[in-house]
Amino acid sequence: MSYILTLNAGSSSLKYAVYRDGAAPELRAVGQVDRIGSEAAHLVLKREGETETRELGAADHARAVEAILDICTPHMQGAPVAGVGHRIVHGGTLFDRPAVLNADILSALHRLVPLAPLHQPHNLAAVRAAMSAFPDAVQVGCFDTAFHRSQPWVDDTFALPREYYDKGIRRYGFHGLSYDYITGELDRIDAEDHHRRTVVAHLGNGASMCAIKGGKSVASTMGFTALDGLPMGTRCGQLDPGVLLYLIAQEGMGHHQIRDLLYHKCGLLGLSGISNDMRELEASPRREAKEAIDYYVFRIRRELGGLAAAIGGLETLVFCGGIGENSALVRARVCEGMEWMGIAIDPEANAAGADVISTGAVTVRVIRTDEEGVIARAVSAALAA
Ligand code: AMP
């Protein structure tokens, strides 16, 4: 018997899950270390309906991974962690599938840091920490960009001079692990229909949509970075690049200020001035909260039309992510008046968050996404190989 650990590292948090390896890896525990980089990091482990917590004091990613090892070891009956799977935001043009990580691949991934400066360094810090805490384990990288490598050139490029495309300024797309999971689930649910045209709306704190045809990504709303497309909790989504020129020229803003604005102060938070959290906005009586939701829904509907056009029609629409899975209001408003597209939903099924909520020609599904499960299966496959 052996175990698989999955790690999903952000700037100040490290989410993890523990699986028992087998033909289908079995989830045994989940947890999170919060406030990494502060003096008061905090670890949570949830298993078998119980929650354990530990205060770690000052902790970096290395200390956080050691603490995960410490808290999980007593529950593993002496069996080893044979593989560690890492969510890595950027695989550039190099990876269209998971990869067993070694020194050469890590150097290549370091070269991609400028493309994802807020995510990639933390992902790679977790890899280094896991290599040192689990020196005998196979380390597997699973890339959020990999699923989108199938996109045709017109969806891979911007209309910049070609030299910029060659330098890597392309539309990479993200949330690939979630889309991979959803595609697998659709295959499982309806294995016959390999040519279906599907749009998946991954609506979480980060949000994007993807048009999938025959199981492959054709177009997505996120592009060069995780800023483009839909408005998100705190990120702007689609923005006229002229706005940036204006902010630089007229407001005298520099790179760091603009980066902070676009990543941390926009989206639902910026529009509402209240919160980045959809639950709070839905509960708020204030006009600004309603307008923020109006804009959010409007952009999803616009993208839905564009993505369906990119794949020549639509058979399936999937909602996933924290908002997509839980907000009946957002689902209802996205689907409202979309009968012309074949989209109609049953209010009761929607309110109940049923697996299928549609009554029209387009099947509208709510699927709980599972990015960790995708990573665990990739590690299991690497171990079997
Ligand atoms: P995620 O990043 O996938 O965890 O999604 C986080 C988002 O899901 C936040 O905006 C939450 O407010 C939202 N969310 C979670 N549960 C609900 C719910 N019951 N109703 C509306 N939004 C929700």
TrEMBL record:
Active site residues according to the UniProt entry: D144
Sequence positions that bind substrate: R87
EC category name: transferase
Location in or out of the cell: Cytoplasm
Family designation: Belongs to the acetokinase family.
Subunit and interaction comment: Homodimer.
Protein name in the entry: Acetate kinase
